[in-house]
Structure formats: C-alpha cells, structure tokens
Amino acid sequence: MNTKQIHKYVNRYLEATDCSIIEKSPAHFTVKLSPDADRELTNRPYYWSFVDRVGAEPETMTFLFVTDQEKYEALQNEPLPEKKEASDSQTAAADAALARSFGFINSSVNAPRIPRHDVYFGSQKLEQLFGAAKARGSFVYLFQEADKRSATPYSSTPYTAWLGVNVRVEFACDRKREEIHSFGVSLVTGYCADRFHDRLLELKLTPRLPSNIHVTKNGISFAKAQSIVEQALERKLKNYDYTWAGDASARLQEELDRIEAYYKPLLQHATDENKPSIQEQYEQRQAETRWQYEPRVTASVINCGVFHLEGID
Amino acid sequence: MTFDSKTQNSTEGESPYARRKLHPHVDLQIDRSWFDELQLRMSRNGPWDDWTLYQLAMEAEQAKRVESFEQLQCLRTLPSFEPMPHQIGTASKVLHEMGGRAILADEVGLGKTIEAGLVLKEYMVRGLVKRALILVPASLVLQWVRELNQKFGISAVAQKKEHTWGYDVVVASMDTAKRDPHRERVLGTDYDLIIIDEAHKLKNKKTTNYQFATQLRKKYCLLLTATPIQNDLDELYNLITLLKPGQLGGQSDFAANFVVDKRLPKNEDQLQEALSSVMIRNRRGDGGIHFTKRFVKNIPLSLSPEEKALYDAVTGFVKERYDESGGDLTSMLSLVTLQREVCSSRDAVFLTLVNLFKKTTEDSPLRPKIWELVEKIKGITANTKAEKAMELVKEMNEKVIIFTEYRATQEYLLQFFRAHNMMAVPYRGGMNRGKKDWMMDLFRGRAQILIATEAGGEGINLQFCHHMINFDLPWNPMRVEQRIGRVHRLGQTEDVKIYNLCTLGTIEEHIVNLLHEKINLFELVIGELDHILEKLEGGESLEQRLAKVLLESGNDQDHLKRQLNSLGSSISQIRHAVKASGDNPYSAGPDLLVKMDKLGQTVEVEP
Q1: Which of A305, B90, B323, B542 sits a CA distance of 20 to 30 A from B530?
Q2: CATH code, domain with B197
Q3: CA-based nearest distance B131→chain A, Å
Q4: Which structural domain range is residue B504 located in?
Q5: In this structure, is residue B446 part of a structural domain?
Q6: Does B310 share its domain with B253?
Q7: What is the ipTM of this complex?
Q8: Structure confidence at residue B592 as a pLDDT band (50, 70, 90)
Q9: What is the per-residue DSSP string for A101-132?
Q10: Which residues form the domain of A121?
Q11: Across residues A245-266, what is the average pLDDT?
Q12: What highest taxon heads this organism's lineage (chain A) (predicted)?
C-alpha cells in the first residue's frame, strides 16, 4: 500500500465508523473518533468498561493521523505570519518562562493533547485499523440496490440469495506464501462462482430490503453451500505444484536423521539415571523439527455474508 | 507433545478444522468456525456488519498477503530506516537457507540486532511467528524493546511482572527467565522464535544458563554473539548443539574430525562447510560496510586566575577532609567530585557545596570553610570553557552535541547559549520518553546545539550530527565510548570530529591524558574497550581507582603522575595483549575465525 492508498483507506474507515473529521489535507486527518472507533483504536478497555458500567456519556479522543509524513512536515514548517501579531504581553511572558526551562518557545503547550499517529504500511496503527475493520466487517447481510429503470410500481424483481466467502490459503513449511480466494454459492441452484468478491464490488449494496423485489426460495441448505465451497477450493488446490512440499519433507527427514544420529549414541551410553532426560530432550527436538519443517496447507475464512442479488443463477 | 494443536487456535473439544489429503506430502486443513457464527447470526437476525468495513477487511488481507516464499516482505514495512545491504543479505540467508536457526556472529557494531529484528519482523509479517522470546543481558532489555518498537514497529514488551509473559513478544534477561516463578512459565511455552543475545555466555555446557537454554521449546532460534569462540572449539560446538544437535556430529566425532588441539582445527574446509549452514559472520573489512573517519582534538585551556584560585581552594579542602578521615576512602569519593566539578562550571560546584552544607550540623567547623569556597565562587565572572565552546560552535557552524557530566553545568550552558542568541536544547536521563523525543526533534530541526548529560543506551542516535564537544569527561571509559557511539556509528555519512576541552594544571589534564594517550580510547574500535576493561584485574572500577590515586597523592604532583602512569601502562599492556592475540580483537581463537570468513580481508581499524 502506498501513501495515497493508505490515505484513502483511513478516510473510508473514518467515514464508515461515523468519526467527525475536524481537519484534513492530502497528508493528514485530525479527527474526533466516534465511540465505536474509539473502542477499537485507543487501547483503553478500562475506560470503556467504566463507561459501560456507569452509563456515563463517553468522551472520545481526538487523533491526528499522518498518512504522508514528508508532505505533512513540509506543510507544518511553512511559516504562519499572521500569528505573530496575536501574542500579547502576557503570552510573551509565559513563553519566556517556558523558554527558560525548555530552551525554546511554544505557546501552544497548553492546548489539549492530540496524539499523533503516523500511518504507514507496517505501522502498528495501520495494523490496528486493519484489525478494527476486520472486527466490524466479518459477517454481512446485504441486498443489491434495485435498478431504477425497471422500478415500475407493480412489477417485482426476482432476487437470488448467495453465500459469499473470502478465504485465505496458506502454504507453509519453514517458509510460507499465501493466496486469497473468493467463492459465491447460489443458494437457489448451488452454482459456485469464483472471484465472487470482485463481482460484488461492481454492485451497489445496501443492508435494507429494497421495495418491489422478491427473494427466490432457496433450493439448497447453508450446510450444503458450505461443502460446495470447500469442494471448489479443494479441486482448485489439487492442481497446484507441490514440489515445495516435497522439498520441505526431504529437509525434515534430513534434520530428523541428523538428530537421531546425535541422540542415539548418547542414549546408548547414558546411565539409567540420565536416560529419561535425554530421551525427553530427543523427543522435544524431534517435535520442534516437525513443527519447523512439516509442510501444510491451511484455509481460513477472512469474512463472509449472505448477498441477495438480482436475477436467478 | 504436539505443536499443531497449539499453533492453530484450536477451541476445546471438537476441532473446527476439517482435514483432507491434497498431495502425498501435504494435507489441507479447512477452518469451519466461521460457519457456526454465520448460522448463529442468521438465526438471531443479526447483528450484521458494515459493507464498507467488509471491503476494508478484505483489502487489508490483500495488502498483507505474502505472495512468494522468497522475497523479503518486511522491507516495505520499515519506512523509518533502511537496513544496510549486509544486514538484508544476512536476514534472507537465515530465512531461506538456514530454516530460521542460525548463529549471527557479526563483529561488534555491524548491527546484529538489526539482522535479528529483520528476521523476526519477516516471520511476523508472514504469520510464521506470533510468540517470540528475546533473552538478553539485563542492561540491554530496554534498548531491545525500544529498537524493536521504533525501528521495526514490533510491540515488544520488557518482562517486568509475572503477567508480562502473556504478551506475544517479550524481552527478558536470562537471569530472570531461568529463576522461579518465571522458569515454569517460560519452559511451558512453545515459542515460535527465540533470540539469545550475547550468546557466548552460553558456551559452557555445565552452566545453568546452558541447561536452561536446551530446555526451551522453540521453532526458530537465533544466537547472537560477536565472539563465537573465545577460548576453545568446544564452545562453538556447544552453541551449535543448541541450534542443531548433530550438525558437527556427536561430541566424539567432532573431536576426532575437526580438532587437533583445543584451539587448533583440522579439516578446515569441511568444518567451514558444516559451519556455513548454521553461522553467518560479517566483518568490518567486508565490502559494503563502511565507517567514516574519526578525528579527535584536545583543546587545552588555562583557567582564569579566579577559577584557578577556586580549584586550588577546593583541592585543599578535599585533601584536608581526606587527612581528617584517616584515609577512609569510601566516604571520600564524593568529595573528589568537587574537584572535577570545578573543571566544569562554578554552578556545578556550587550545587554540591550547598548540598554538603545542608548535611553538616549548625555548629560544624566545616560550615565556615564551605562559605569560604562559596565566596571564591562569587569571584568568578566568566567560564573559560564555555567561552571556548561557543567559539568552536560558531566556527563549525553546524549541528553539534555537547556532553557534560553535570546537570548544573547543563543548565548554565543552556542559559549561556541563549544569552548569545544560539538555540540549544537539553537532553537528560530523567526526562520521560515523550520529552526526550521532543528534544530530539527540536535538535533535528531548528536547534543547533544539543546539551546532553546522558549518552547511555536508549535510542539517541545522532547520525545527522558529526561534531561533538566533551565539555568534561567521565572517568568511566565506557561512558566516553557510549558518547562517541551516539554519533560515530553505521549510517554516519560524514567524518566525525570530537573535541575534548581540557583545563591545564588540573585533575582533568591527567584524565584526558590517561584516556587519550594511554588507553587510546578515542581510536579504539567500537566494542573493543569492553574487552580491555573486562581483563583489567581487581574488582574495582577504573573510576574508583582514579579517585583513590587522586586522594592519596593530594598535592604531590609527582606521586600522582607516577600512579597514573602505572595505571595507564597496565591498561596499554592489556590492550596490546588483546591486539596481539590476533588481528581480530574479539576472538582468542582468531585463526579459525579468520579462515571461516572467506570474504574477510584484513580488519580495518577505523581511528
């Protein structure tokens, strides 16, 4: 993600969670968080449990998100000439006092604290935003917005319910790579579509049931749809090249042989007293090595939902 | 013991994973927990999540996706610094060729911490490491935590209380970790990665540290040491056994195949090969690693008559107290400070005198004597050193860091520079993190001068500045080295200029002479000093010895000189001995190491 994409990402998150943006530039946002966003981003569970218990009005924090450090700092360093006039004798005296103890002058020391967070790819804040998006974006139930043209008052458009599932597949041994797949299964016909998420992105979706539509009766159960997804995934993965897994297994065997060559003679010569502890260490090393090298493929669901789309597939 | 159940968030009872055979070598495990949650929400008619957040969650996964087995993913997540090519090379070798178990044996100062950080970050980005344990000497715990947080954006936590063990990335000292009640917690955890810094301390198989280390359960493991061999080859063997038992064969095979004498290897090529798959060692001479030069200049200054008068009076005062005490050293050490302070600023002496005054009883005969000294202080109007420092600063007209030992001097200098319309900011150990960062930012930005009382450890890296003035010198050489290390480090692009202000005819003159001429401190390679001081016999620190010599000789300049000379020459002897043990000062088994580094040319000692 480059700075522009991140800027857009932050913007969309803040809007989706109803945060009020106080100030923004292409390089930053100053934003008063909504209660939802505050819970996810400010790391103050104690405060929130207090608010929840007492029922107090929550006071959310204001954050400064800097999405482009260089540009933001360039903006900050531009002089603000009109401000100079404003300082009266009293603030001048206060500045002088501060200057004595800090060695420089800054009259905005007393302004409320707005923590600054640099948001770049790999930063903890962005990671937290990712987590926050996932926490509140896991399960959806949506309808395609009705096409205006066909909206005659007395005709009704047929809709199909789809089970949409986004899956992350990890291919791991002592190393790892990943793929993301997206499947959609029509609950009417059982037809399974690949790249389903891309298709959804082209549509306008709403949580509200549009008028003048009717949802076609489901032909298959959810459980059936789930197994269709799994089968589709498995079929796909079976055609992959698994040389890497073969290599990893070979490495694993080599390591296990080496460990055996080390521990077998040790065990033979050990006294009865020492034997159990050496045996234990031996088994531990074997287990560690398997953990390290054993090839595995894991599929986990990123998020999923039920989507009601126009037409019958 | 099965690691599977622990590594893949199992819930109790029935596994949410379905398992299928994909290929003779590999199974597919499919997560099904989502399905139950979806059904639950269906049956309750919600709550349903937001469509935008749903898309954002998917975009996050797409952005984080690890596309290939090879490429280092973590590099694009580190905007705040750029690792050196040899560090990146080392990290990718560990990841791709060594399966994540390696000894990182770079010479001191080449960034082993960075290499280990890169490996850790890469594994975390790839989701292969979640729980990591970093075992380091107690004095380095905070430094590691800070580096990992600041440079790598890894939320590492310093182990403080029992519950801190629950965090994903914990930094702790070996001594704490191996003690009860921590021991159980640590040995009961499966760590995805364990990093052990200063791993040469594990060389002896019989120590509790070593035995503790063998019991740790880990997937990947990094051992960091600049001196993989200090005395004999067995030490190296022991380290490797921690990582990969059997890599060099059994103990007897190893002795038969590779060892002629404790310190003499045979079949070097084979040994070399066996080692190269578990150990990486970068050296200063290797291509791409470049330190700039270091220039040191002593600036001799004569005290003004008023300052000299104060110095003599204080010296007399200290000597008197020493005689009175009947040669009891321990209580006197703090008085020596007075003498050092006169060489720094009158403010520093004044503060100490006031404190001393407060400690005496009202009828104490000391009180009038202290007053006398204070009178002398009043007579001083200008600070010779400060004037000179300003002259230097104006001359160089670039960023400069001034180090002093004393808070009072620091305050005085701040005022002094401000009075001359020069922008200076303070830095001291007592500041909280936020303020320290703030001061650093100011220094990086508008301020020309940083006045610091502390150089120790934590994260003041000032590569953007290459002038340094030692307003006064600490007696502990390690602290001098730390000061230099702030500025003269990897990443510094300019030659570094160091100025020592030194008042003639005072104790300071002797100290500068000792540190500069005898220890050759300013020309040592980073890390070398540690080695020399370690070998200095006797339990006393160099600081204590100096104070003792000083007190004992009183006004007898010849005696003082003789004593300091003998101290100096014993240090230079050690220094030569360390040097002579090989062109690499860090290993007593240098021949082997030099041969192991096929890349290695002669060691460049950067003055």
Answers
A1: B90
A2: 3.40.50.10810
A3: 14
A4: 294-300+380-592
A5: yes
A6: no
A7: 0.85
A8: very low
A9: HHSS--GGGGSPP--EEE--TT-HHHHHHHHH
A10: 3-130
A11: 90
A12: Bacteria
